[in-house]
Amino acid sequence: MAAPEATAGTATAPARPHDAPALPPLVSLALLAVQSVVILWVVPRPESISVQGWRMVAIFVATIVSLMLRPLPGGACVLIGVSLTVLTGVLPITKALSAYGGTNVWQVMAAFFIARALINSGLARRIALLFVRAMGHTSLGLGYSLVASDLVLASAIPSNSARVGGVVFPITRSLSVIYKSLPGPTAALLGTFLMLTIYQGDIIASAMFFTGQASNPMGADLARKTAGVAINWATWLRASIVPGLVAAVAVPWMIYRLCPPDIRHTPEAAEMARRELREMGPMKRDERIVLAVFIVVCVLWATSSWHPIQSTTVGLFGAGLLLATGALTWGDAVREHVAWDVFVWYGGLISLGEALNEFGVTKVFASWVAGHFAGWSWPALMVAIVLIYFYTHYGFASLTAHFIALYAPFLAVLVASGAPPALAAYALAFYTNLSASLTHYGTTHSPIIFAAGYIAVGTWWRIGLLVSFLNLAIWTAVGLPWWKFLGLW
User: Fold this and answer.
1) Which helix (H) or strand (E) segment is 222 a member of?
2) pLDDT digits (tens, 9 = 90+) for 298-315
3) CA end-to-end span of the chain, whole Å?
4) Residue 160 CA: distances (Å) to CA of 51, 118, 141, 198, 400
5) What is the pTM of this model?
6) N or C: which end of the chain has fewer CB within 10 A?
């Protein structure tokens, strides 16, 4: 018997993310102050690090911890950290602000503008509905259709919260409501399975694409500066595509087995998608323009080794075309607050990370870590480092914080041990993203899905841990031979 249809009002508005501070702001600020005092006046300063470098350590650690405790929005925390480097005389103002002119920062900005056009034009939603119409006749097929749409959108939308919160999640909740699967006793009918699937599927999308989430370009920048490994959109996808596609098939199936929905056949889902596509009508002018720009930009990014056009130039060219044709208005670009927020914290964190390297802090930390693994061969050390690096994400509420705090020093340890730089750089970048599978606070959009009420904390952590085992197995057992074939090691 057909279930009643959901109304737009009850099924498409995404839940608001839980962006509240982890602790009362005054408590967080007090902890940050105490921590800084301890670093500056209690912890012995290594002789190889200058006084200015040690101040840089205190500012950097305080900035990272503030991103975790969230007494203020992340961009504000980073901007304060950058300002302190100038006020304390650690960095000159030109050096502190230099990263805001970096090419990766502006590539991310351009991608956000293209993403806004994809969403505003309705093309992103149309893409997702097309997948649901084609694959959504069973609950497992429905899960695959949502993951597939996310993978396509991740090729150009660098905000996983925009992809999931703005496109995939509203459709998912609509589908759950159609089958009377609501938070509470009926969640297991369909909603719990779908919510787990879109979250864990998006973790794979984040790992597969350079534009999968906002801090991936930061990881690429750190790989270049720490290990001399150049990573761009095309090389990232080439390295990730085989293990990523295997994971995209295996993870939804595993969730289906571990948390099976009570409803297995979902013909109404495909019918809903068909109906909504009819209501949308044929592609509008803006959709056609955005689709053309989307294809051109992705093709140019994918073929970057065949032409001299730099990736950031491609992104800015695409954004410029959208602005010139009116498919994206300047007002839309100015109001894209997530992009400007990323601009502030991204550029600031790059500046702080560069300063740590220049003061020799990263090298000292890497030497200290390596000292605990003296005599280990690089393959054994890499296994240990990956496991430590991966599961420390239980302590992070941000992929950005994880990248900036641990990626460069752990990469330096592996390279110093003799590990192939490209292998270490790509593997750690992928594993950073995959580690967000563990908790309901692992990355930006996890609170959006958690707040919907379909997944209990215990279920999320149990499934997250089991999925982490599967991801590590796939990206190692499948990834290593593929990376060998590509010549990364």
Assistant:
1) helix 216-227
2) 898 888 778 888 888 998
3) 56
4) 39, 14, 22, 11, 13
5) 0.81
6) N
